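hey so i finally got around to running the thing on that chain from the lab meeting. sorry it took forever, my laptop kept dying and i had to restart like 3 times. anyway pasting the input first so we r on the same page abt which one it is
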Amino acid sequence: MAKLVYSMITSLDGYAEAAEGDLGNGAQDREVHTFVNDLFRPVGTYLYGRRMYETMVYWETAPAEPDAPPHIRQYARDWRAAEKIVYSTTLESVSSAKTRIERTFDPDAVRKLKAEADHDLTVDGPNLAAQAIAAGLVDEYHLFVTTSVVGGGKRFFPDGVRLDLDLVEQRAFDSGLIYARYRTR
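ok and heres what got predicted. didnt touch it at all, straight out
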């Protein structure tokens, strides 16, 4: 059975999306990006909401940029190799290969997908992740914590959730970014 992983960059005060501006420094340097490449290369399927998909579809054409560094080109190749499911009631079409639209998030369908998958899945974006968390589908949480406090926005964890987690891996990067991987008990 494959794992469902929820991973996002988050501010020091727990926001995966800032109310104003970005989440701060540290998320885009080569060391971090190379680590992310290695971490998510085995992912077979990405589960996205519309907004996250619209952000990530950049990787469909990123390798076409001739001056892109090798770690960027590698991430693009890995992303394009994976399946993508976009949950949206408004998106009419997708602009990336290996991508399909689902109109509703069906926890039973995701359970079946996990049971049948040969490779792990990720759920990306705080809104879609909140649904997966509420359904008890998330097996691991990968937080990339920046050095910034942003004071508001969309939280990494939805309000009202209680989870008991085990810390299974951690790493600090030269940029100040901290990676923490937790497993559901």
